[in-house]
């Protein structure tokens, strides 16, 4: 789909185009397929040709207007796999064994730009310590660099798209791990809930892991993959006594227009033990309700993995993304089972439909395929 005469040449000698196609969000719920310049290769970074991008709930939250980009238009997509087509003149590719044609996945705090035919990145690989910090308009210090990992040949393109979300879940769990023997509740059994549930169940020795979701089909999948019992909200409310759980992992999106007594976050706090731990993962810049009385009465500890790189540096995330890749390769998280559908990037109408219908679908992960 790239259109235009080449104006530059990558280190491999392969001509690169001047322009590319990108999926633009021009306002909440308004998109276009735009022709834009191919980004320049950073002197200390890489230019990547996009291979696959999986759509996640963060993309949907931006699409719906629950998360606010710094400006419009914005190119959505960040669960990304790309092929190195150009290496910056100051990038020490030999120290990380990186060459033209290698595949790379990255993880960044506030990053978009994935749903385009090319993107640039300034990577940090595991073992490196680099910083380029700036203050965002969303109340935290971020890094212009991104944690990254080189993909081994035996890992398939489609499976690679799950490294980024596994990294996000793993950062959160490692920052606030459950204790041995904890009774764990996973709120939401979308992809992140399944990934977090699998990691906790397989690696952190809990007493039990149960889950709750409004979607019966996702509950079936959760029960097959990690959940000792996958509840509908009303079932959880009636079947589980107050003060049962030690640890809640909340992957829920923005919640609106729900009766306060049936709010799943309030329900989960009722089911927590005194001094229970409540780990918040799902992001929204719209105000969400949390029951301060239950927090006070029970002494509930609300926790999260900070975005702020003064607390969780990007080079630490580079270590985590390498471990996330190993978790997928070992089968602790089964990426193949998370994949529901593949959409060709050329099919703009289907891509728009996926964004518009994401909240009502029974699918888990959709991957946008850029490969020829």
TrEMBL record:
Keyword terms: Metal-binding, Oxidoreductase, Zinc
Cofactor: Zn(2+)
Residue ranges crossing the lipid bilayer per the database entry: none
Top-level taxonomic group: Bacteria
Any one GO MF annotation of this record: metal ion binding
Coiled coil: none
InterPro entries reported in the protein's UniProt record: ADH-like_N, GroES-like_sf, NAD(P)-bd_dom_sf
Pfam family, one: ADH_N
Alcohol dehydrogenase-like N-terminal domain span: 44-105
Keyword presence, Transcription: no
KW Metal-binding (keyword) present: yes
Family label: Belongs to the zinc-containing alcohol dehydrogenase family.
Protein name as catalogued: Alcohol dehydrogenase
Organism: Amycolatopsis thailandensis
Organismal lineage: Bacteria, Bacillati, Actinomycetota, Actinomycetes, Pseudonocardiales
